Amino acid sequence: MIPHILLQILVAPIVASIIIFLTRHKIGGKAGWISGVTLLYTSVLLCVAGLRVYGGEIIYEKYPLGPEVSLNLLADGLSLPVALVINFICVVLSFYSMHYVDHRIEEIYGEVDRRTWLIYYTRFFLLYLFFPTGFMGVSFATNLISVYFFLELLTIIPLYFIMAQFGYSDYITRYKVALMCLYWGVAGATLFLIGVLLGYTQIGSFEISELPNLAGSSLTFWFAILILLGLATKLAIIPFHVWMPWVHAEHPTCIAGLLAVYANIAAYVAVRVLVLPLRDDLQVFCIPILVFALITMIYGALLTLAQTDAKRFCACSTISQISYSVFGIGALTIWGVEGGIFYFLSHILGKAVLFSTAGILVYTTGIRDMRRMGGLWSKMPITAVLWISGALILSALPPTSGFVGKWTLFAGAFQRMYNDPVGLLIVVLAIISTLLTLVYTFLAARRIFFGPLKPELSNDKIKDPPLTMSLPLLALVVVAFILGVYPKPFLALIHSVIGFL
């Protein structure tokens, strides 16, 4: 039995970050390896915890911090698979970042001396390690103040500072976009906090396990509204989507996949904080949630079709893809919620692959405009396979995890709406909208990789990237296909919690 296994998973990345900071002038380029190995260790711990949870155990660790605030951690059939997939993506993008960060430092700061290079290189990885800690905190925390803290931690430390120092565009634009990310993130978290405080006035506790006591209260409607608005800001649901194309596209590509996780994890919070304890009180929100999710699906897809910039293309597609998870969860049925959570996990796997592949294209060619690309299959076959794999996952084609997620969530939505003509029309339109994903992902693949090779791309420097960048992404593809072929263990874990609905 491993002692304090959840606390180790939470704290290990911060310990590694401190070690990188204290030894930054000695470790040199080993900062990336320290980050990657630390996250491999936490992945092993998560697998051990996962076997225990799959065997029927619920892991609960108590760490009180005060009379009402705690750092209590819970690993069950819902939090464990979410944490496991997110941590795996953090591992992959940590190794992927090693070459990419070196490239970004050269692009932004030019030829610098060894000491200056070390400062920026180690700074990236000590900031990067706050991501897994924030994500694990949101996944496992049982106290609403702790959830709020970890959401703010993600916004203020890694997202702001990495964007400001390693993002694209010029110095002024980088800081403007970083501030935009900060403002929207803090705004969403503040609405969440106000809702939490309102709930506290009714039940006298910040523990999520006490939220069922809010059921039927006269203020539950306003509690739900505030929490939903705060999470909708994170999820980039229309009309709270305006930050996503800027922030998502201008972040360094090596962490853009984690920004998709940052936005998507709000769907998990919605299930944990609202759906599980207060489903009956949420019924009034069902149709509005489905309508806003449908509008966001279609708008996000059309916005993506209009893009020619490879990074902004991936950023806009995130707006559309997140809304499928919201749609399933908004149906408030067991299948709908399970499908929404499963699709959330599938989406972040596919988006990490697609966005990182866009980063490889920019890294290799120095070009972001897809109109200037073409014929790259002959020069970059592995990169082409990665893009097409990401397109398959996001388009929800079998045998990928995306297919299982969308099939399940739409089954849940049909289950809820089959006697309601208006609701049934909403579900049918949502299913039809999935064709737009197929169109925009494969049209982009055709534009980038097929057709005649552009003369400016014919030089010998354009080729597939180092294996430390491509192999980790292939591992994400393999996981997405395994979950598509054999989803039973993950669905069983999720059902062990959602099934109580």
Task: Characterize this entry briefly.
The chain has 501 residues and is mainly alpha-helical. Helix content is 75%, strand content 1%. The protein has one domain (5-498).
Highlighted features:
501 residues, two-stranded antiparallel sheet, globular, 75% helix, 19 helices, mainly alpha
**Radius of gyration of CA atoms, rounded to a whole number:** 22 Å
User: How far from one another are the termini?
Assistant: 32 Å
Number of self-contained structural domains: 1
Model regions low in confidence, pLDDT < 50 over at least 5 residues? none
Q: Helical amount among residues, as a percent range?
A: over 70%
The topology string of helices and strands comes to HHHEEHHHHHHHHHHHHHHHH
Which class do the helix and strand fractions yield? mainly alpha
- How many helix segments? 19
What sort of overall outline do the alpha carbons produce when their principal axes are compared? globular
**Total number of strands:** 2
Mean pLDDT: 92
Report the β-strand fraction as a percent range.
under 5%
In order across it, which strands form the biggest sheet?
Answer: 1-2
